[in-house]
Structure formats: structure tokens, C-alpha cells
């Protein structure tokens, strides 16, 4: 983990939590973003415990609760019941958008599952690696069950419409971004992290989850979009001199800026921005590749999935398409009409 990340945590994280963050970054090889998410999840959990135990004023906002004083005796006092109460709180009472007057309450199953994963990893470290706990209080903690949903994606026609709708002073850049999303199936963080040196002839090196590198092969559409963008690329500040996608402020484009940009063009194309996002473009690329004959193992490599089980969701999309084809058959709703007349006896032929 880089020093500036450690210093960012140091202002509030107690020593054992800082040690854990260093461990997952240096030994487990987790990315800085992943380590940061672990920190946010665990900080919120510890803030909740201090609040629920009456260790801070009742009206103190969560964001102002310090966890710097969390020590080993406090961690040893945490029980499985404490965790269940915490999960009950975030499932029912935690606002999804804390600054919105119209927010809904209760985090979704996937968000709760991530927080459970952070808690389990932390206590596993304290028990087996740091060896400061004799018993892991969350060893029997299960993750919330998550309903399996088919990923939402654009049709081929919608994808073409999205590309054709790109206009404006940064059209070459934006078109290149959308083309890479739709053809390569990259994550937003992967696209934001592309450096000029990562592009070599018809290959692109990307860094995925867990800092794992993979090579993506660029087709003609990607190469043409890249060639058209490079002359229009805004020269960045020295600090971001290697960034491939740059903003008008001469910085590397951030993940949030790219997400916003994609939403803008989705809206301009007449598509529903509440249904489609930059991540949905990744699903679109994967779905179109699978529907056009790319086998599941190859698709796993293209997408950078650690397990083929993650990639298997795209086989269910095809199943749904097959089901839809059956339902759309013009004879799908034709049923046999029942006759009111008494049927004549039918003489069976002799065998």
C-alpha cells in the first residue's frame, strides 16, 4: 500500500486496523481501492458499536464518531450478536443516500454482503495472522443471500444508436471510451487507469481487480477510435502525463467522471439513464460476444473473472432469449377449442 494511503487511514484508524489494511494490500495483493473500501466498511461498523453502546453522545452524527481509541479489549468484547444487530440496522434503518430527503432506507443485499465480507476478513486476520484473538467471534457468520438477477444490457441496435449519438467538442474521446466499453467489456476502473504505454499495436494491457493484469486484443473499431482520438487528446499535467483519457482540466479522467459521461450520452441517445450505466456497457459487450459464439472460458479471460461461475450468468441470458423466442412464436397463445358436440366413437384399427 502506498504511503499516502496509509497516512489517510492513520488519522482515525486504530493500530490493529491499520496493520490489517497493510496486510491485505501487501500480502493479499488487494488494490488501493479495495483496501479503502475495507476501511470504510470497518470504520462504519466500529462507529455503530460505539454509538449502540452509548460511548458517544446519542445525537452525534456517525461521520463525527472517531474510532482512533478502539483497542484490543474493545475488539475482544465484540460478539456475533453485535454483528447481527448491526446487520439489522443497515438492512432496515440505514439511509441509502444520507443527504437526500427522499432516500430509501435499508442497504441492498449485495452492499450488506460486502460489509459482512470486510468484518469476516478483519476478524480472521486478528485470529489467525495477528494472533491477538483466541476465538473468532464471526466464524459462523453467513453472508446475506442475494437474489440472482440477470444483468441488464443494451441490444445491438441500442449500442449502435449510442455510438452514433456522440457529439460535442470531445466527441473523439467520448466515442473512443464508449467503443472500448462496448467492444472490450472493461470495468470502469480499468478504463480510467489506461496509460498510453498500455497500448501496443492491437493489444491493450489493463489492470483489473487485485492488481491482476490481462491483455485485451483490439478489433478494427477500437483501433480506428483510438487513432481518431490520439490527435485530439488533451495534453495532461506532468503528474498525469501517462494518462490515456484526459479531461479538459488536463487531469486523468476519474471513474466518477467517466460514469457521468456515459450517462450523458445514454440520455442523448434516447435510452433510459436509470436503467443503463457504464457497468451495463460491460454487460452489453459480454452478452453480445456470448450471443455471437464466444465460448464461456474465452469470455471469462476477456472479462478478467477469477471464477468461471461469475461468467456463467451470461449463459442464463441466452436461456432467457430462448424462452422469449418461444413465447413470441405467433402460435404461442393458440389453444385447442373444446367442442360441445358429443364425439363419435372412433374405431381403433386392428393391430
Tags for this entry?
351 residues, mainly alpha, 3-stranded antiparallel β-sheet, 49% helix, disordered N terminus
Classification by helices and strands: mainly alpha
Number of strands: 3
What's the helix count? 15
CA(first)-CA(last) distance: 84 Å
Spatial strand arrangement across the major sheet: 1-2-3
SSE string, helices as H and strands as E: HHHHHHHHHEEEHHHHHH
Taking all Cα atoms into account, the compactness measure Rg is: 26 Å
Average of the residue pLDDT scores: 85
What is the 3D shape?
Answer: globular
Strand content: under 5%
**Range of helix content:** 40-55%
Largest sheet: 3 strands, antiparallel
**Unreliable segments of 5+ consecutive residues:** 1-5, 99-103
Descriptive report:
The protein is mainly alpha-helical and 351 residues long. Helix content is 49%, strand content 3%. The protein contains 15 helices and three strands. The chain has helices spanning 3-10, 15-26, 32-52, 72-76, 80-92, 109-129, 156-164, 171-184, 188-192, 220-229, 255-268, 278-291, 296-303, 308-311, 313-327, and strands at residues 199-200, 203-207, 213-217. Strands 1-2-3 form a three-stranded antiparallel sheet, with no helix packed on it. A hairpin with a 5-residue loop joins strand 2 and strand 3. The longest helix is centred in the first third of the chain and has 21 residues, at 32-52. The termini are far apart. The model is unreliable at 1-5 and 99-103 (pLDDT under 50).
Amino acid at each position: 500500500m502506498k504511503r499516502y494511503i496509509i497516512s489517510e487511514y492513520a488519522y482515525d484508524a486504530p493500530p490493529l486496523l491499520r496493520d490489517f489494511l497493510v496486510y491485505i494490500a501487501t500480502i493479499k495483493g488487494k488494490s488501493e481501492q479495495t483496501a479503502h473500501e475495507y476501511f470504510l466498511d470497518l470504520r462504519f461498523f466500529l462507529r455503530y458499536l460505539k454509538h449502540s453502546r452509548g460511548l458517544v453522545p446519542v445525537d452525534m452524527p456517525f461521520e463525527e464518531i472517531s474510532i482512533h481509541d478502539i483497542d484490543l479489549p474493545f475488539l475482544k468484547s465484540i460478539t456475533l450478536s453485535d454483528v447481527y444487530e448491526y446487520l439489522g440496522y443497515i438492512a432496515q434503518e440505514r439511509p441509502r443516500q444520507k443527504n437526500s430527503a427522499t432516500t430509501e432506507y435499508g442497504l441492498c443485499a449485495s452492499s450488506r454482503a460486502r460489509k459482512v465480507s470486510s468484518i469476516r476478513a478483519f476478524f480472521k486476520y486478528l485470529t489467525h495472522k495477528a494472533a491477538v484473538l483466541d476465538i473468532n467471534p464471526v466464524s459462523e457468520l453467513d453472508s446475506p443471500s442475494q437474489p440472482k438477477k440477470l444483468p441488464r444490457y443494451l441490444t445491438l441496435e441500442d449500442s449502435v444508436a449510442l455510438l452514433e449519438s456522440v457529439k460535442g467538442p470531445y466527441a473523439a474521446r467520448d466515442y473512443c471510451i464508449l467503443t472500448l466499453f462496448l467492444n472490450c467489456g472493461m470495468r470502469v476502473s480499468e478504463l480510467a487507469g489506461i496509460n498510453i504505454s498500455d497500448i501496443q499495436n492491437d493489444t491493450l494491457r489493463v489492470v483489473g481487480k487485485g492488481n491482476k493484469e490481462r491483455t485485451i486484443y483490439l478489433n478494427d473499431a477500437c483501433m480506428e477510435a483510438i487513432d481518431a482520438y490520439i490527435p485530439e487528446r488533451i495534453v495532461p499535467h506532468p503528474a498525469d502525463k501517462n494518462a490515456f483519457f484526459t479531461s479538459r482540466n488536463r487531469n486523468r479522467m476519474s471513474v466518477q467522471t467517466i460514469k457521468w459521461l456515459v450517462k450523458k450520452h445514454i440520455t442523448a441517445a434516447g435510452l433510459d439513464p436509470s436503467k443503463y450505466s457504464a457497468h451495463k456497457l460491460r454487460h452489453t459487450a459480454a452478452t453480445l460476444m456470448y450471443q455471437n459464439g464466444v465460448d464461456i472460458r474465452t469470455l471469462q479471460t476477456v472479462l478478467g473473472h477469477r471464477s468461471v461461475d461469475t461468467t456463467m450468468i451470461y449463459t442464463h441470458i441466452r436461456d432467457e432469449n430462448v424462452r422469449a423466442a418461444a413465447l413470441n412464436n405467433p402460435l404461442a397463445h393458440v389453444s385447442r377449442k373444446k367442442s360441445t358436440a358429443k364425439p363419435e366413437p372412433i374405431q381403433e384399427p386392428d393391430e
